[in-house]
Amino acid sequence: MQTAMVTRNPAQAFPFPVFAKAGSALVAERFLGRPLRLARGAEIYAEGSPIETLFEVVSGTVRTRRLLPDGRRCIASFALPGEVFGLDGTGRHRFSAEAVTEAVVIAFARKDIEDCIGREPRAAHSWQAFTLRHLEAAQDRCILLGRRSAAERVASFLADLADRGQHGPHLLDLPMSRYDIADYLGLTAETVSRTLSALRRRRLIADGANHQIHILDRDALDEQAGEGDA
Amino acid sequence: MQTAMVTRNPAQAFPFPVFAKAGSALVAERFLGRPLRLARGAEIYAEGSPIETLFEVVSGTVRTRRLLPDGRRCIASFALPGEVFGLDGTGRHRFSAEAVTEAVVIAFARKDIEDCIGREPRAAHSWQAFTLRHLEAAQDRCILLGRRSAAERVASFLADLADRGQHGPHLLDLPMSRYDIADYLGLTAETVSRTLSALRRRRLIADGANHQIHILDRDALDEQAGEGDA
DNA sequence: CGACATATTGAGGCCTTTCAATGCTGGTGG
DNA sequence: CCACCAGCATTGAAAGGCCTCAATATGTCG
C-alpha cells in the first residue's frame, strides 16, 4: 500500500520544502522560495520558455500540458498540494503550466538546486531518486495509455487522485474539467463523462459537493483499474 | 535536427563508456564493465529483481517490457548499440529485459556509478541530465500513445529508429517482431503490419534485406509522423 | 526440404470518437 | 435578489478506427 502510493505519486515523496528529504537540514533551509498566488487558469510558464524555476504546490491544482500543431492537447501531469512540477526538460520547458484552480505555489531557483547538488552528495542522491520516481510515473503512464481501456484509465485516475489527495482513500477532489481529464488519459471528454456515469450507476462512486467524489467501493474501483499497476 | 535527435534518443547521448560525457576522464575509466554475450531471446534481468547493474548495448537490440496480469504485454523501450538500459526504477526492476537479437552488452555496477555521483559533482550533473533525457522521452511517448493515430505512431517509430540507427536517415534495421512493435506502440501486430503495408504502397518505405527498411521519402514520413514532436 | 514461427491480408465487430442537443452551474450585472 | 449568460457536463445516435478472429503467405532454422 505504501509502496504503491509512492509509485503513483512521485512528487509527494518530497514534501515542502523540496529537499526536506535530502537528509540534510542545511539543504532544506537553502530553498525558501518565493510564494506565488495564482488565479484560475493563470499561466505559470509557457511551452518553450527557459527552465529557471521549479515549483511546489501549496494549495490548489496545477496542470502541465502541450498543444500539438493540429490543436490536439495533451496533459502531462496534475500537481496537487505538496507536489512538485516544472521538471519537464533539460533546457526549455516542453510543456506549459497553468493553474486549474486558484492556487498558491512556491518557486525555487533551479540554479540553486543544481549548485546544491554539486556540493551536497546526499542532495544529489536524493534528487536523483526524485527524478527517477518521475520517470517511473511516466513509464507507468505509457502502459496506461498504450494498453488499457477507457474504464480502466478512469478508474485508475480516480484511485490515483484519492491516494494523492488529502481526504483519505475514499474521498477525492476532482477540480479539473472533463476535457482536462480526457487530455490526461488520452480519451475524449464525452468518454470520460460516460465512464464516470457508468461508475456512478454501478455504485462504485458518488458525487459530493464542490467537485468531490466519494469512492463507495474502493476494492471494486481498484479491481476496475486493473489491479495495482499503473 | 540535432536537438530533435537528442530528444528522440536519450540514451545515445551517452556513448560507451557510460560516463564518457561526464566531463571527467577519470570518471570514464572507473566503469570498465564486464561484457555479456546474449542469445536471441535471452533474459537479461527479470521484472521485480533488484537493480544492481546498468547495461550498455554494444551490438544487437534489447527490449524492456512488462507483462500485465491478464497477459497484455507492454514494451517500454528498445535499446540500440550505444544506448543504455536498466534504468527502470529505484529499487527493483519494473520491467524485464531481453535480447531481441543476438547481442553483446556491457554491465556496469550501479553502486559504482552512485558512489561516483557522490564524489564527482560533474558526474552528478551529467547523470542528472541523462535521467532527465529519459524522462523527456517517456513524456513524449505518453503523447504518442495518448493522442496519435496508428499511422502516426508507426511513422514516428520508423523515423526514430532511423535517427538512432547507424545507417543514416534513410535506412534502418527492424529486427523486432510485429508483436514487439505493437506492444511498444500500443497497437496490435496486425495493425502494425497493415500500416507498414500502406507505407510501402505509398512508396514512403521499401523493404531491404535482413529486416532492413529503406526510407524512400523521408520528408513524407516525417510529415506522416506528425511534424517534429514525439 | 520440411516444420514452425512470423508476416500479411480479409471480414466482421466492438469500443471510442464525432457530431449534436439538452441540462446544469456558477458568476455577473441589472 | 434574481435573471441571464457562458462554460461545462451529460446523454444520444451514428460513424470510424482499431481489434479480433481466421486464413493464407513468407521466411527461417533445423
Automatic annotation (TrEMBL), chains A, B:
GO terms for molecular function: DNA binding; DNA-binding transcription factor activity. Residues 148-219 form the HTH crp-type domain. Keywords: DNA-binding, Transcription, Transcription regulation. InterPro entries: cNMP-bd_dom (IPR000595), cNMP-bd_dom_sf (IPR018490), Env_Response_Regulators (IPR050397), HTH_CRP (IPR012318), RmlC-like_jellyroll (IPR014710), Tscrpt_reg_HTH_Crp-type_CS (IPR018335), WH-like_DNA-bd_sf (IPR036388), WH_DNA-bd_sf (IPR036390). The keyword Lyase does not apply. Pfam families: cNMP_binding (PF00027), HTH_Crp_2 (PF13545). Transmembrane segments: none annotated. This is Helix-turn-helix domain-containing protein. It comes from Teichococcus oryzae. It comes from the Bacteria. Signal peptide: none annotated. GO terms for cellular component: cytosol.
